């Protein structure tokens, strides 16, 4: 009967849900020891100037391999760490490690001028966030100008007043800022004028297919114009083809990031750079 079918569907749904939440529990538990057991590392994805293809910055991306769970991608474990609050400690580790790497790269020929670090809402709204940044700078000896903080639109909407103050504090201290995954959030364009972020990163969903889809191209053109009118520099994320790269350069997009340029790499594999040992 229809009723039985409904019940079966419900059972399948419930089984899937509990498997999901059991995994989440395992991940949450394993994360608690991950820093102490040195299970994290950072990889760095090049961000190049669109016209010259010169390396300007890199984005630090977190990688986690646990002995029992194996490799767990960030899209899987970061939401869980955000939910539990562990992201604050994990994020502090990321800042420390990025600052250490920035200092190791400082002055090296061919090294990126800046490392961009992703931060979650819970980090930005943590009253100790600026102290955490300060601590990472002090312990590493890195210059503040070598670090930039990436945040998504969601953060801006949920905690607008706090985040405006934090962005100002970061800028006052000499760090950069960027708005990640632009276009996937919910912010109205006028809303963005409240935040004086330096860089706007166009989400790869819009970059994808601009060579085939006139509407996507029009949208990307409009985003670039809007970003520029707010005094922001533009990074296109997820650039995968030469055609996309040249269209974006023609549209005045300053920077490119994506598999066309390079996958995220361990620090020693960035072209023309030497490895450093972990602190
Ligand atoms: P994101 O900050 O938007 O990072 C860009 C993601 O796109 C990375 O995935 C990168 O590997 C991937 N990507 C880069 N170029 C291409 C391309 O050409 N094509 C495709 N298909 N993908 C490309 P990843 O490393 O898996 O990270 C996923 C997300 O996890 C990040 O998105 C970010 O939101 C989050 N994340 C990563 N590391 C951290 C971290 O240290 N802290 C926090 N809070 N979040 C992080
Ligand atoms: Mg990012
Ligand atoms: Mg992004
Ligand atoms: Mg993302």
Automatic annotation (TrEMBL):
Presence of the UniProt keyword Protein biosynthesis in the record: no
The residues forming the signal peptide are none
Identify this protein by name. EAL domain-containing protein
Q: Does the keyword Chloroplast apply?
A: no
Keyword annotations of the record? Membrane, Transmembrane, Transmembrane helix
Query: Covered range within the whole protein?
Result: 470 to 748 of 748
Annotated EAL domain ranges read 24-278
Q: Species name for this entry?
A: Uliginosibacterium aquaticum
């Amino acid at each position: 009967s229809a009723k039985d079918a409904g019940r079966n569907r419900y059972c399948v749904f419930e089984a899937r849900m509990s498997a999901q939440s059991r995994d989440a529990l395992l991940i949450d538990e394993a994360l608690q020891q991950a820093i102490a057991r040195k299970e994290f590392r950072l990889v760095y994805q090049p961000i190049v100037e669109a016209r010259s293809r010169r390396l300007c910055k890199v984005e630090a991306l977190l990688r986690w391999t646990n002995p029992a769970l194996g490799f767990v991608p960030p899209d899987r474990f970061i939401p869980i760490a955000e939910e539990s609050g562990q992201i604050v400690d994990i994020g502090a580790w990321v800042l420390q490690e990025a600052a250490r790497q920035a200092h190791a790269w400082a002055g090296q020929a061919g090294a990126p001028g800046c490392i961009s670090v992703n931060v979650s809402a819970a980090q930005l709204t943590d009253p100790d966030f600026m102290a955490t940044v300060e601590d990472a700078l002090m312990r590493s000896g890195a210059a503040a100008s070598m670090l930039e903080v990436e945040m998504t639109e969601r953060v801006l909407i949920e905690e607008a007043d706090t985040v405006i103050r934090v962005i100002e504090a970061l800028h006052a201290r000499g760090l950069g800022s960027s708005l990640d995954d632009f276009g996937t959030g919910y912010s109205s364009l006028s809303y963005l004028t409240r935040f004086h972020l330096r860089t706007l990163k166009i989400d790869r969903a819009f970059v994808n297919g601009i060579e085939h889809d006139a509407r996507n191209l029009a949208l990307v053109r409009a985003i670039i114009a809007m970003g520029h009118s707010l005094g922001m520099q533009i990074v296109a994320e997820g650039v995968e083809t030469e055609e996309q790269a040249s269209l974006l350069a023609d549209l005045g997009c300053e920077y490119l990031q994506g598999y066309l340029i390079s996958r995220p790499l361990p620090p020693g594999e960035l072209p023309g750079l030497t490895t450093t040992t972990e602190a």
